[in-house]
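Narrative progress, year one. The postdoctoral researcher (J.K.) led the effort to move from monomer predictions toward full complexes, under supervision of the PI. The following entry was the first complex the group processed end to end, covering 571 residues in total.
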Amino acid sequence: MLKLNKVHKIFNLGRINENHALKDINLVVPKGDFVTIIGSNGAGKSTLLNLVAGTYSPESGTVEINGQDMTSRPVYKRAHLVGRVFQDPLKGTAAEMTIEENLSLAVKRGRPRGLRLGLNKKRREEFRRLLALLELGLENRLEDPVKLLSGGQRQALTLLMATLGDPEILLLDEYTANLDPKTAVQIVEITGRVVEQGELTVLMVTHDLKQALEMGNRTIMMDQGRIILDIKGEEREKTTVNSLLGKFSEKSGRELTNDRVLLQR
Amino acid sequence: MWLNILQGTIEQGLVFALLAMGVYLTFRIIDFPDLTVEGSFPLGASVTAVLIINGANPFLATFFAFIAGILAGMITGIINTKLKIAGLLAGILTMTSLYSINLRIMGRANIPLLREKTILTIIKDWGLPERYISLIAFVIIVLLVKFILDYFLYSEIGMALRATGDSPVMIESLGVNTDNIKILGLGLANGLTALSGALTCQYQGFADVGMGIGMIVIGLASVIIGEVVIRTSRIIYATLGVIVGSIIYRLAIAVALQLGFAPTDLKVVTAVLVILALGAPALRRFMIQDEFAERLLEGGASDAET
């Protein structure tokens, strides 16, 4: 359960380049919800995700996860609750370390790390089983450094790592944007499987309106720092990409301007 | 005589391998250009020398030198992570302070250890052949440190340390406080450097406040040579490479001396060596481009003929 209460985020407060990125955001996401977030560039989607992850803390308002106040806790102090996949496939894994070493880092998510060896036979077997779920053949490459993997393979591995160690919330930040279309589809499929297994609450930012409606059970539209649309259930099922675009201009008085979105119309 | 020179060179290489492992930890593992080593190397020597001339057990003195080095490295880490001062400058600040501190510890610029009990004289008393004492002692110490370091880098904390240099955003999102890990890494690296200084002063028979000058370049040269000789991203081979690199570096220096370079020229020789090694990829690119251009021109000419 994630709860944002009257959250404001202002960058460069009081300076000439002041930017009020989030304005009075109120959002409650019950456990198990899969929310897709759309909006034009600069709408505040990524800022919202960063507030949940702890990269930023808000100027006012509170962020709660599972009833605990997380508002000003740094990233590493909420890592036990939040898993994250970045847009850049290079960011979510350590390139020089092997696949199994990367996974062993993720297994200890948010828990104290000691002087015991990070890998053992039992863990390796567990990793092999988990990697097999990805259906990318990575289960036979445990000892390969991650830098040898393709962008899609790395993103799949990051996805798996983001769900290891029992987080409550999974944040996906345009995580298929840098992949070729075929790989992106594959990663989306894997996401479905992984999320189902972990009973996770998911927030996913995407530019792909079709993907936003197909994945998850709830869609939020943002504009200029505000949530302007929040649909789920039957209403969402009836919504199409075109009616979504219509709703955007109706609510914001503008066209949904975004080169990547326009391409898909 | 040649054999004596060779043995002495290898012994030096082994002692400085500890320093090189420290530099490997900072420059390669946590990706931090740490200049503290220039101060923590003589720090290790000062602490050891002062404790030994005051009658302390040499093993204990060496251990305290290690601890002193750890503290010095941690200070650099704290200056960098908590006070947000750039890593390079943080190291320079600690290094500069250590010059005064080392003089305070020693009370003068140089302490001779002639006729004092050192680790090496103690081992001699165990009845080992006198000629090989240093060699045997250093091989054992260096291998021991290598295996402990290897184990550490494969441990849960050690892996977090490696990930901190490799992908800091990722390891933070997995719940690791990268600031604390950096402080730990810098502490360990400078502990190893101080250990190297402690052994150096017992081996040479004196501690000198100026003995740290150029240590960073020597450590770097050893790490780079090691990487050329043993190409791998696997830790156990990489740390072996560092040791081998340190020995090869000493051999190169011995050759340079035989060729007639003055000992005072060695620092510039070493620096040029490091510049060439680090600049090799860029230099190679120039040469490949030239070659490519030449081949294009030649190709164009032969096409015109046919």
